[in-house]
Amino acid sequence: MTNIEYTPIASAKLENGASFHRTERIFDLIKLDDPAIAVMTDLKKVSALTIAEKAPIDAANARMKHRGVRLLLVVNDDDTVVGLITSTDLHGAKPIQHIQKHGGTYHDITVQDIMTPQDKLEVICMEDINRTRVGNIVATLKQAGRSHALVVDRHERENKQVIRGIISASQIARQLDIEIPTTEIAKTFAEIEALLASA
């Protein structure tokens, strides 16, 4: 073994006003015939973003903005998923309807007041994701009139459903390299269908 002498690296002072790099989400471009898993955010690889059901919706909005997402899983004290909340829930008609029905102000509303509860959520099985194509996912979201889908598999020992992934229409559009000037679902799918027709 040779004796190598390593010299120290020169250091400097951190400058005033320095910032830091933030992780960029880089999506691979895809085609409609690619495997469906190409558009799924895999929660085995990326941490799920959650919020407590009793949190104020201001906190949900801040978390979405900070993390650059449009959906949070809503959990109870045991970390069981009790629903989900989207940016559409926060900025659409739900808060106004809640105030009209129950009184109070926007700042009084909690996540559980306007979330989509667990018993209203439809999911896709991971087995189906593994054997279908991106085009099947687009058709599924369009039929359901939704901008997101949850993907589940089963806990090996307890045989309970576990949310394995999240699929987003806006992410699919980005991966198809389609510009979406609005977050409206209908517009998203009109853009995706236009790509289908030109293919």
Automatic annotation (TrEMBL):
Q: Look up keyword Signal and say if it applies.
A: no
- Entry-linked Pfam families: CBS (PF00571)
Q: Which terms are listed as keywords in the entry?
A: CBS domain
Q: Which InterPro entries match?
A: CBS_dom, CBS_dom_sf
List, alphabetically, the SUPFAM superfamilies matched. Answer: CBS-domain pair (SSF54631)
Q: Which intervals hold domain CBS? A: 40-101, 115-182
Q: Report the protein name in the record.
A: CBS domain-containing protein
Q: Which organism is it from?
A: Sulfurimicrobium lacus
